[in-house]
Amino acid sequence: xxxxxVSATVALVAAVSFAAPSQAGYYSYDYQxxxxxxxxxxxxxxxxxxVKKIRVCR
Length: 58
Description:
By secondary structure, this protein is α+β, with helices and mostly antiparallel strands.
C-alpha cells in the first residue's frame, strides 16, 4: 500500500511539472494582452440607471 501511494505521488508531481510550462507559453516572448474598458448599463429595482465599467483583456 505504501509503494502505491509513493508511486501515485511521483506520477502526480511529474504530470504537474509538465503542465506548468505549457501554461506559461501564452505570456512569454513579450506578449501583452489587448485590454479595453467596457461600459454596461443596467437598472436597479427602483429604475435608477447603473453604469458599470469593466476592464476586458484578450
